Every structure is written in structure tokens, then in C-alpha cells.
């Protein structure tokens, strides 16, 4: 009697399993990319809130907002918010209102690129003094709360 039963998998079975694994990996990567984007946006909103708080402390102490027009925050000479305003942090002057001004999470490994009002791509937070107020520009990759993806700005009273 001959025993023709082979042990193992057929080529079709192996291809089906590989296709299923590829589909699962693809769905997982898409989910992770969305989670990363959402995390960066949450970080941006938190950073803007922290910068606004530091600017409010500065304004309470100095009765004005620091000078600056379209400066990219968290880079170059705008690393620290001390009693002289935005500084490079080499020798900060007391009081220090924000020792480490944050950069946009997506811009950390690039050169400074300050946001402007109509930016349609990721950019660094930027600051402009506006009389008795200020404007902080920032960019969102997706929607957060009631803010859609794209360019936004914050003032002492609200975030748009």
C-alpha cells in the first residue's frame, strides 16, 4: 500500500497567509500614522497653551508683551522667554518666564520656518507683537476640538 499523504502547505495556502499578514500590517501602519499625527496635534495645542501662559506672566510683570515680529519660536535667538523678552538662552536674565520655548513637533529636525497667517504646511510656531496683544501662529495636521486642519493663530483672549 502506498501512502501519498504529503505533509506541509500548498503554495496557495502560503500565499493566502502572506496576503492576510500584509493586510493586517497595512491597517496597523495606517492606524499608527493617524495616532502619530493626532499626538503631534495634541502637543501643538498644549505648546500654544504653555506659551500663552508664559506670555501672560511676562505681561503681568513687564506691563507689555515682548517685542518681536514674525519670529520662529524655540529656535535660534528665541529659545527662552526671560525678562529681556525672547533670548538665545546663553545667559538668561531673571525672571525666566519660559526656560525652553517649544518648537513644532514636526519641525524639530529642520531649520526654523516661522508660520505665517496662510501657511498650508507644517511650520514653527511664530510670534508677532500686535500693540497691546500678540499673535501666535501655528499649524495643525488634522482637526482638534473645533479647529480644522491648517493654519491657526492664538491671541491673549482666544485661539482661532
From TrEMBL:
<dbReference type="InterPro" id="IPR012902">
    <property type="entry name" value="N_methyl_site"/>
</dbReference>
<keyword id="KW-0488">Methylation</keyword>
<dbReference type="GO" id="GO:0016020">
    <property type="term" value="C:membrane"/>
</dbReference>
<keyword id="KW-1133">Transmembrane helix</keyword>
<keyword id="KW-0472">Membrane</keyword>
<dbReference type="GO" id="GO:0015627">
    <property type="term" value="C:type II protein secretion system complex"/>
</dbReference>
<feature type="transmembrane region" description="Helical">
    <location>
        <begin position="12"/>
        <end position="32"/>
    </location>
</feature>
<dbReference type="InterPro" id="IPR045584">
    <property type="entry name" value="Pilin-like"/>
</dbReference>
<keyword id="KW-0812">Transmembrane</keyword>
<dbReference type="GO" id="GO:0015628">
    <property type="term" value="P:protein secretion by the type II secretion system"/>
</dbReference>
<dbReference type="InterPro" id="IPR000983">
    <property type="entry name" value="Bac_GSPG_pilin"/>
</dbReference>
<dbReference type="Pfam" id="PF07963">
    <property type="entry name" value="N_methyl"/>
</dbReference>
<protein>
    <recommendedName>
        <fullName>Type II secretion system protein GspG C-terminal domain-containing protein</fullName>
    </recommendedName>
</protein>
Amino acid at each position: 500500500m502506498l501512502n501519498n499523504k504529503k505533509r506541509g502547505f500548498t503554495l496557495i495556502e502560503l500565499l493566502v497567509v502572506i496576503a492576510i499578514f500584509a493586510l493586517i500590517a497595512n491597517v496597523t501602519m495606517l492606524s499608527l500614522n493617524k495616532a502619530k499625527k493626532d499626538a503631534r496635534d495634541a502637543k501643538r495645542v498644549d505648546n500654544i497653551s504653555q506659551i500663552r501662559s508664559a506670555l501672560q506672566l511676562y505681561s503681568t510683570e513687564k506691563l507689555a508683551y515682548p517685542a518681536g515680529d514674525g519670529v520662529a519660536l524655540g529656535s535660534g535667538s528665541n529659545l527662552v522667554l526671560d525678562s529681556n523678552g525672547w533670548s538665545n538662552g546663553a545667559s538668561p536674565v531673571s525672571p525666566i518666564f519660559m526656560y525652553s520655548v517649544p518648537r513644532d513637533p514636526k519641525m524639530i529636525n529642520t531649520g526654523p520656518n516661522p508660520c505665517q497667517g496662510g501657511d498650508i504646511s507644517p511650520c514653527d510656531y511664530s510670534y508677532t507683537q500686535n500693540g497691546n496683544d500678540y499673535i501666535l501662529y501655528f499649524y495643525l495636521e488634522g482637526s482638534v476640538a473645533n479647529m480644522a486642519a491648517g493654519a491657526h493663530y492664538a491671541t491673549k483672549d482666544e485661539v482661532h
